[in-house]
Design a protein that fits this description.
Length: about 210
């Protein structure tokens, strides 16, 4: 089941002796969404900065053009001297070593952030390197998401080792202190403490889950 309290109450009433198992997908989705929220925050900021640069460029170009008109002599036939300013000159944004603008990088990196590093192509690895160099917080966010993925993927872990790994993960997220991850932390603490819900590996299955015996 998911994190729905209503669904939990239904299960407890209809199946009082059942083991409540929370699908790991929902926890992973929460932290992945938090990472993407952080990425989109940077993208929005960079796009705003780029728009401001473009606006400033056009304003300065217009001023230069108007000044050049005042300096230009009427009916001048000699083509020598300073060339007139062109109003249709295009704004050229900053481009990274791979040819992306910064907003383009933040857009095109969405999928690579969702998968493990061994699945990255050469192009994606280059983008990831540029991204992590420029945004250390996104590098830490990816590490948090990947760590959780590894905990769930370890089918050889015991109930105790999975719990200890999850506690270390929690401490890592808490130390990160990023608002985007607050929802995931709050839900984890709620289910862990209020309902005595813990992380365990369901050894009979290949998919580890959040589970508790009621």
């Amino acid at each position: 089941m998911d994190f729905s309290e209503g669904m939990r109450q239904i299960v407890l009433e209809c199946f009082p002796n059942a083991t409540i198992t929370l699908d790991r997908f929902h926890m992973q989705q929460l932290v992945s969404d938090a990472m993407q929220e952080l990425r989109l925050k940077h993208k929005k900021e960079e796009q705003k900065f780029l728009n401001e640069q473009r606006k400033l460029f056009n304003e300065q170009l217009k001023e230069k053009y108007e000044r050049s008109l005042k300096r230009r002599k009427k009916n001048k036939k000699d083509k020598r001297g300073r060339k007139p300013i062109r109003m249709n000159k295009a704004f050229v944004p900053e481009r990274l070593s791979n040819g992306d603008t910064i907003p383009e990088l933040l857009s095109r990196i969405r999928y690579p952030l969702m998968v493990s590093g061994e699945k990255w192509t050469t192009t994606q690895k280059e983008r990831i390197s540029l991204l992590f160099e420029r945004y250390p917080d996104l590098k830490e966010a990816y590490s948090i998401v990947h760590s959780l993925r590894m905990i769930f993927s370890n089918t050889k872990s015991t109930w105790i080792s999975a719990y200890e790994s999850m506690q270390k993960w929690y401490d890592k997220v808490k130390a990160f202190a990023n608002d985007s991850f607050n929802t995931a932390l709050t839900l984890y603490v709620t289910w862990k403490m209020k309902y005595s819900t813990i992380l365990s590996t369901v050894q009979q299955m290949r998919l580890p889950s959040l589970s508790t015996q009621r």
